[in-house]
Amino acid sequence: MSNSESITGRVTPVLRWCAAGETGRGCGADAEERLFEALSGRWQDPPPTISMSLDPNITNQALGLEPSGLLETLASERGARFVDRYAGALNRFFDLALLYFYDQCAKAHVAMGFDAMWLGYWQMRLRDHAHLTDVFGRLMDIVDDGFGNAYFMYNSGLIDGPEQWRAWPWPVITRYASRGAAVYRLLRARWGRKLAIVPFVGPGLWENAWQPYGFTEFVTALRRDPGFAREAIGYFTMLTVAQVEAFCAAGARVLTLGEDLAYRSGPMLSPKLLEEFYGDGYRQITSAAHRRGAKIAIHCCGNTADLLEMFIDWGFDGAHAFEPTADNDLATARARVGDRLCLIGNIDVTHTLVDADREELASEVKRAVEAARGGGYILCSAHSHPAMSAERLRWMLEAVCGEGV
Amino acid sequence: MAEQLDKVQTAVSDLDMDNIAPLVREALDSGQAPKDVLDAMCAGMAKVGELFEQGEYYLADLVLAGEGMKEGVAVLEPLLAGETLDKKGTVVACTVKGDIHDIGKNLVCTMLSTSGFNVIDLGVDVHEDAIVEAVKANDANAVALSILLTPMVDSIGDAVKALQAAGLREKVKVAIGGACTTQELADRYGIDALGRDAVEAVRIFEGFCA
Fold first, then answer.
1. Which one of A201, A274, A353, B31 is least enclosed by Cβ atoms within 10 Å?
2. A386 touches chain B (CB under 8 A)
3. What's the predicted TM-score (pTM) here?
4. Cβ burial A320-356 (10 Å sphere, 16+ → b, else e)
């Protein structure tokens, strides 16, 4: 067999897999265009929809599946022993497992009728049967999501100080970015006609800088060791810019950046410190997207009222979350930003998408849509949440199309 | 003499972290009583709380103030051993079962301690039985439950039920706080108060222990 035949032999199953995405109610490439228009500040009627609900429980509900049994396997004596022994070998299949996970997610989102779905590429590694680590020095516990699915929860950082930070085996930036883009390219090829796949670039500059290190420790470093803090933020800026470039080269026109800069009553850092340490990095990231003709939105939990002007100043085209539980008011946000920032989200995940009745949910969607008029708006849950009901996500989509109102 | 205490108070309220411990030593060297130095630090922390509520300071500033307090208290601690300090009440604080996030809980503990409460910090992922034991062992007036993740909200209910089963619910007030907490959630579990941040927590527990 010649080299080219060998390569073709290997590539053909991948092409076949990519071509096999199932038909749904979403509209794929057209959806990406509508997202792009919304992020350009233009009202779309009806507003496009996107999902960040990547929890296995949502996928299972939408596809009529039971929990995979992974949690029971990890908790069993034999399973735990096997994973503890072969974690290193299992980790070689990380990208494949991620691809399968997102493939199921995409299938579920097409079935629910979403226009778009986030795709977060984040390299994690099984440390043992109860823990994951990521390449950035975070330790995560594997826990039950309350529905029998494995769910990971940030535990602590693995990096003790600047010396250990400098010695950490950080991923090679170009390789990390191109692996994420490869996963994106495959999912886009398979599902892109039915569902826009929106790369979630992250986990950003702020979280990535403090979580491996510890919140108190990093906040203290901003004051006592600003040189180190800038070094850490600088690395993640380069990584994120490379991710943006790789995703854009793979065809992405719409991206999101994950960055929880606020908590329930306001920003975690003062605007002055945010600008001083992070402003330049965010501008590099948004410029990288804009240079390649893409739009980029920032996801930020918590009360973001005092950050909206900064988001615009940093070059973001949209902002996601507007959690109602953090007292975010969409109409006030719109009045403040006009059409300079596309608003995304604001549908409550603690009650509305968990146990509200159809009428209440429709009225909540109508309220958000009306409040967001005057600029771009993309309908989305305010966060991911394993307790959300797939049926209510469908009601949300039907309501925005006027079918359920 | 009061000038030394003013400097300590200002160092805390200005988040002048590098100077808090040296100024505490300076105040002690100048003859100030350890208890008075501690009071000056707490007054500085109260000012930090005020500035936070006025929007001048942010969450990270509360963290910095807390770290500065720890460094100052570390200087005072050996000198305060054996002294009886008046306390406003005893609060058992923890992050609930299944949840291991501790930023908010730690801030609440710091703010309560510096506001004159005896705080029993049980840490994170705390089972309801441990909460009951701590309330009994410390004759606590109140319980502070912190939670970030919605999947763990039932742990709040478990803690309340355990306090009820132990006959303690009438004796202790319970407050919750954290990203996923809402008034609906507080109502569902019969919680006495919902706090938005660590500074509001101080007011809530002062109300409980008045």
1. B31
2. yes
3. 0.89
4. bbbbbbbebebeebbeebeebbbbbbbbbbbbbbeeb
